[in-house]
Write a structure and sequence with these properties.
By secondary structure, this protein is of the alpha/beta class. The chain has nine helices and ten strands. The strands form three sheets. Strands 5-4-6-7-10 form a five-stranded parallel beta sheet. A three-stranded parallel beta sheet has the order 2-1-3, with helices on both faces. A two-stranded antiparallel ribbon has the order 8-9. The longest helix is centred in the N-terminal third of the chain and has 23 residues. It starts with a helix and ends with a helix. It binds NADPH dihydro-nicotinamide-adenine-dinucleotide phosphate.
Length: about 280
C-alpha cells in the first residue's frame, strides 16, 4: 500500500493554516520565511517555488533572494547577516546544494539557531541527539509523520537507514532511536547492503541512487520510506524500485511521498520559530 505524502500533508497544512491565522490575530503579524537561492539549477528552482507556494497556502509570508551563480560569496553572506538581524524574519533557508565554489558550512553558520528552520545548525542537530529536539530537520521530521500516519507502533522495531548525511540520514537515525527503534545506519562502505535491508521492519532509504533497493532486498511486510529524488531520462524516480510495493506493507511513492511532507515540516518549523521568537 502506498503512503501518499500529499494526503498526510493536507491535514498538517490545514491545521497549520489555522495556527498561523491565530498567530496573526494574537501578534498582529504573520510568520515570515526568507528563502535564499544561488544559481540556476532547475531542481533547486522547483523546490524553492514549491516552498513559496506552500507558504502562501498556509498564510506564511515569504521573501525570496535570488543570486546568479558567480555572485561573490560575501554578497550572499551580507544578505544572510541582514536577514538574521531583521526582526520581521522568523526563518531563513538557504537552498542546497549551493553551486561549486561556495562554502556551504560558512554561509549556513550565519543563520542564527532561532531562525534555522531547516534544523541544520550544529546546536539544533546536537539537541536532537540529546533527545531535546528544538528545530528538527524537515525531511526526517516529515518521515516520522508519514510513519505515524500508518498507525504502526515503532517501539522495538528494527529500523535500517540507508544514508548518513547530516541533513537526512543522521537526524533520521536519531529520531527513530528516540521512537525506541533499534537502529542500523548503512552507507556507501557497508558491505552486502541487502543483508541489512532484509532485516528491516522499517527501511528508510536516502542514498540518491536510482532504484537501488529492489524487492528481493526487502523483508515481507516492512514499511519502506523512499527519500531519494533522482532524475533519470527526464523523469523523477526514487532510490527504491516501485516493485517493492508488492513486498512491503507500506511504501512512499516518488514523487508524492516524502517531498510534500518535507515542505509541510518546513512551514511548521517556520511557524514554531515565529512563536518562539514572540515568547523569547
Ligand atoms: P548525500 O549525497 O548527502 O548522502 C547520501 C548518503 O547515501 C551518503 O551517506 C552515502 O554514503 C550513502 N550512499 C550512497 N550510495 C550508497 C550505496 N550504494 N549504498 C549505501 N549507501 C550509499 O544525500 P542526501 O542525504 O542529501 O540525500 C539523499 C537523497 O534524498 C537524494 O536523492 C536527495 O535528492 C534526496 N532528498 C530528498 C528530499 C525530499 O524532500 N524528498 C530532501 C533531501 C534529500 P557515504 O556517506 O559513505 O558517502
Amino acid at each position: 500500500m502506498y503512503i501518499y505524502g500529499k494526503e498526510v500533508s493536507k491535514t498538517t497544512r490545514e491545521e497549520l493554516a489555522r495556527h498561523v491565522a491565530e498567530f496573526g490575530s494574537r501578534y498582529g503579524r504573520v510568520p515570515c520565511l526568507a528563502v535564499v537561492l544561488v544559481g540556476e539549477d532547475p531542481a533547486s528552482q522547483t523546490y524553492v517555488r514549491n516552498k513559496i507556494l506552500g507558504c502562501e497556502e498556509v498564510g506564511i509570508r515569504s521573501i525570496s533572494r535570488v543570486y546568479e551563480d558567480g555572485t561573490p560569496q560575501e554578497t550572499i553572506a551580507q544578505e544572510l547577516r541582514a536577514l538574521a538581524a531583521d526582526d520581521a524574519v522568523d526563518g531563513i533557508l538557504v537552498q542546497l546544494p549551493l553551486p561549486k565554489g561556495y562554502d556551504e558550512r560558512y554561509l549556513l553558520s550565519l543563520i542564527p539557531d532561532s531562525k534555522d528552520v531547516d534544523g541544520f545548525s550544529p546546536n539544533n542537530l546536537g539537541l536532537l541527539c540529546m533527545d531535546k529536539p528544538r528545530t528538527v530537520s524537515c525531511t526526517p521530521f516529515g518521515v516520522m509523520k508519514l510513519l505515524e500516519s500508518t498507525g504502526v507502533s515503532l517501539a522495538g522495531k528494527h529500523a535500517v537507514v540507508v544514508g548518513r548525511s547530516n541533513t537526512v540520514g543522521k537526524p533520521m537515525a536519531m529520531l527513530l532511536l528516540s521512537a525506541d527503534c533499534t537502529v542500523t545506519v548503512c552507507h556507501s562502505k557497508t558491505p552486502d547492503l541487502s543483508a541489512f535491508t532484509r532485516q528491516a521492519d522499517i527501511l528508510v532509504v536516502a542514498a540518491g541512487r536510482p532504484k537501488m533497493v529492489r524487492a528481493d532486498m526487502v523483508k515481507p511486510g516492512a514499511i519502506v520510506i523512499d527519500v531519494g529524488i533522482n532524475r533519470v531520462d527526464g523523469k523523477l524516480c526514487g532510490d527504491v524500485d516501485p516493485d517493492v510495493e508488492s513486498v512491503a506493507s507500506y511504501l512512499t511513492p516518488v514523487p508524492g511521498g516524502v517531498g510534500p511532507m518535507t515542505i509541510s515540516m518546513l512551514l511548521y518549523n517556520t511557524y514554531r520559530a515565529a512563536v518562539a521568537r514572540e515568547n523569547a
